[in-house]
Design goal:
The complex is a heterodimer. Chain A is built from two helices and no strands. By secondary structure, chain A is mostly helical. The longest helix of chain A has 49 residues. By secondary structure, chain B is an all-alpha fold. Chain B is built from nine helices and no strands. The chains are: A mainly alpha, B mainly alpha. At the A-B interface, helix 2 of A face helix 2, helix 3, helix 4, helix 8 and helix 9 of B.
Chain lengths: 79, 247
């Protein structure tokens, strides 16, 4: 240890506020950036998944439900 | 060789390979950074001239080093974007520009706070500080320009040109402490000479620089993955990746 006591470590001969402010801002910003990066990756995966599920739901609905109109050949006499 | 080059440019390939490295980058980076910071804060000897305020160096130098290093990497990627139109290079530039912005801000902030007890002032318009401020604006400009252009290809080209124009600033930052009279002290590490600091000071500094480098590698990977996923949403491999484990 370069310091005699814990309080000397905190005050750092009067330079404590400067040193600790730097380290605090550094760690807070790094953490915010790292957590933010993880969360935006999770968010994009989530939104892709929802998009794909919406698509498959739509195609399922289209496949199972009866058509609302049908076109059948009707023979009409030409005479 | 060319096949490898093509593979390197493939977002899908990058996605797979980066996932394998990321845990190691994060673990190694956090470990090294913590070792460097704890050593520097509590165990490194006091500076005979500056006292304990010099302990800021263990985060100031890594952030400033990374701020410039990231810009050089972005410039290399910009060349690749312009010459070979490689998608992944553009993805890299967009993914890391905000990281560069934050690290440049941290370098300036820690420098200002260190300057107060050492030089007696928070800020002075000298060569090193001003050129670093310009670097901050360059990062901001890159991010803003990218957001302002909707078309992906024209945004990529415009951003690449801006990054390349801004690269003149890097040698100015590097040599500013030698070309002009400045309050800033000369470089802590030089490739050609032994450090002027004792090993109890420069070893923890080197550890924290390496640690931050690895953490940047992790950040770059995860942010590039995010960018790739949002660009390639309509491809089959992204769909398979997102929907795996679900029927």
């Amino acid at each position: 240890m370069a310091f005699d006591s814990f309080s000397a470590f905190i005050t750092m001969d009067g330079h404590g506020p400067y040193v600790w402010a730097c380290y605090a801002v550094f760690f807070v910003l790094m953490l915010v950036m790292m957590i933010g990066s993880v969360r935006s990756r999770t968010a994009i995966i989530e939104s892709c998944r929802r998009g794909y599920e919406f698509q498959t739901d739509k195609s399922k609905v289209a496949a199972t439900s009866a058509p609302s109109a049908s076109f059948e050949r009707v023979n009409v006499s030409q005479d | 060789m060319w096949q490898f080059f093509h593979k390197l440019g493939s977002p899908k390939w990058f996605f797979g390979i980066s996932a394998r490295f990321m845990p190691w980058l994060l673990a190694g980076g956090v470990l090294l950074l913590m070792a460097g910071v704890v050593w520097g804060l509590a165990f490194a000897p006091k500076d005979y001239l500056q006292g304990n305020s010099y302990r800021i160096i263990f985060i100031h130098v890594p952030t400033a080093f990374m701020a410039q290093s990231i810009y050089i990497m972005m410039a290399s990627a910009a060349v690749v974007t312009l010459v070979w139109r490689m998608k992944l290079a553009d993805v890299f530039v967009k993914a890391v520009a905000p990281v560069g912005l934050v690290l440049t801000f941290l370098a300036l902030f820690t420098g200002a706070v260190w300057g107060k007890p050492t030089w007696g002032t928070w800020w002075i318009w000298d060569a090193r500080l001003t050129s670093m401020l310009i670097l901050l604006f360059l990062y901001g400009g890159v991010i803003a320009l990218d957001r302002a252009i909707n078309d992906e290809k024209s945004a990529a080209r415009a951003v690449a040109v801006l990054v390349l124009v801004g690269v003149v600033n890097i040698p100015i930052i590097k040599y500013s402490v030698e070309w002009w009279n400045t309050l800033h002290q000369p470089a802590s590490f030089k490739l050609t000479e032994k450090p002027t600091m004792p090993p109890e000071m420069w070893v923890p500094l080197l550890l924290s620089v390496l640690g931050l480098y690895l953490i940047f590698g992790w950040l770059a990977c995860i942010r590039m993955q995010t960018e790739i996923l949002s660009r390639e949403q309509r491809t089959r491999w992204v769909k398979e990746f997102v929907m795996r484990g679900r029927s």
